[in-house]
């Protein structure tokens, strides 16, 4: 019971960024003394720190880069990765497309497919809007402008009731500590998407291997396929092969 409450409380703090002790007390229906004891454990790893009257999330690793900055970088590799990922999709598939500036490029090759897309990616929504052949399911929540996505507890809760054939996931980095992202607001959504799919596919450029951000939403071995570009380090090529993960290199034309 305690371990479950701690996990739920940690997830609540990561999702909201900062909360008061009174809010935690009322949300979890426990005494203030229990809140204090729980926070003593949750603050030990260092990604949550105590502040006056409550706690806040501390991002001590790779920061969240605004969407406008990420989307303005050369996108040839990202387009190639998105195209290769889209080739995995068949008619009548139900897929989840994660937020990010790589996953959005899948839409360039999905517009003629008769599929269902579940997403919190605003760019994907816009690109699918005029495609009558695509059933578009949008996660509820609040718009997060830095990531051009919809986030919030209700997003993960809504997604928790759905299953997909393939979940196409993005990440800030992938390393031996796991597949990570920098936004606490997207943590629960990503974790839920991987947990409720038949096949998890990771899309990321080669320069993101060996990079660690604050929140590990999955282990590398939870992915059946990784799609990247030719800059992926040899050490990770070997490691993914040893793990039985299908590594696909997207050609840039």
Write the layout of secondary structure elements.
Blueprint: H1 2-16, E1 18-20, H2 21-28, H3 32-42, E2 48-51, E3 54-57, H4 67-71, H5 76-86, E4 94-97, E5 116-119, H6 122-128, E6 135-138, E7 142-144, E8 149-151, H7 153-159, E9 164-169, E10 173-175, E11 178-181, H8 184-195, E12 197-203, E13 215-218, E14 225-228, H9 234-242, E15 246-249
Parallel strand pairs: 4-5, 4-9, 5-6, 9-12, 12-14, 14-15
Antiparallel strand pairs: 1-3, 2-3, 7-8, 10-11, 11-13
Helix pairs in contact: 1-8, 2-3, 7-8
List keywords for this structure.
single chain, 253 residues, alpha/beta, seven-stranded parallel beta sheet, three-stranded antiparallel beta sheet
Number of separate strands: 15
Average pLDDT level: 87
- Helix count equals 9
Secondary-structure element series: HEHHEEHHEEHEEEHEEEHEEEHE
**Helix amount:** 25-40%
Class of secondary structure makeup: alpha/beta
Cα(first) to Cα(last) distance is 54 Å
Describe the oligomeric state of these chains in a short phrase. single chain
Major beta-sheet overview: 7 strands, parallel
- As laid out across the biggest beta sheet, the strand order is 6-5-4-9-12-14-15
Percent range for β-strand residues: 15-25%
Overall radius of gyration: 19 Å
The parts where pLDDT drops under 50 for at least 5 residues are: 69-74
User: So what's the overall shape?
Assistant: globular
